[in-house]
Amino acid sequence: MPQQFRHRREGLNYDELRTLALKGNSGLRASSLRVDESKALIGSAFNFDKTELYLPITIKNNLAFNDKPLEVFGVQQNFLFPTVYFAGKGVNKANYHIESSNYELKKQILQQALASNYHELQYARQKEKTYSELNALYERFFLLCTTKV
Known about the structure:
Blueprint: H1 3-10, H2 14-24, H3 26-40, E1 52-63, E2 69-76, H4 82-148
Antiparallel strand pairs: 1-2
Helix pairs in contact: 2-4, 3-4
């Protein structure tokens, strides 16, 4: 029997089904993307504010030696205390570990449900095979009983 028809009659084995389920599950793919996102956000804890530039401002109360007001340029950038950045990085790492654990949990639940359903299907197939063999046995027994009379 050709290989392609054998799979259709017998079905896929557990490993092939598991591979298909892991690839095709949209919830698992979304969880994987959240893991990737949280991993990328770990380095974003060190996000500094933009530098602000002040254009010439005339301060009338601050006069130069020639009695003309000073024009002042300004540059400003705010920094937080370093422990704030490291704490943010720790929070991002914790979020990554949570998302990673959540992904692994969803993967395990999917595999467990798939294994349970696969074994239930195998049990039903074996039960069907047993009943069909019993049916054939009873049909032969009935045929033998009716022909001897």
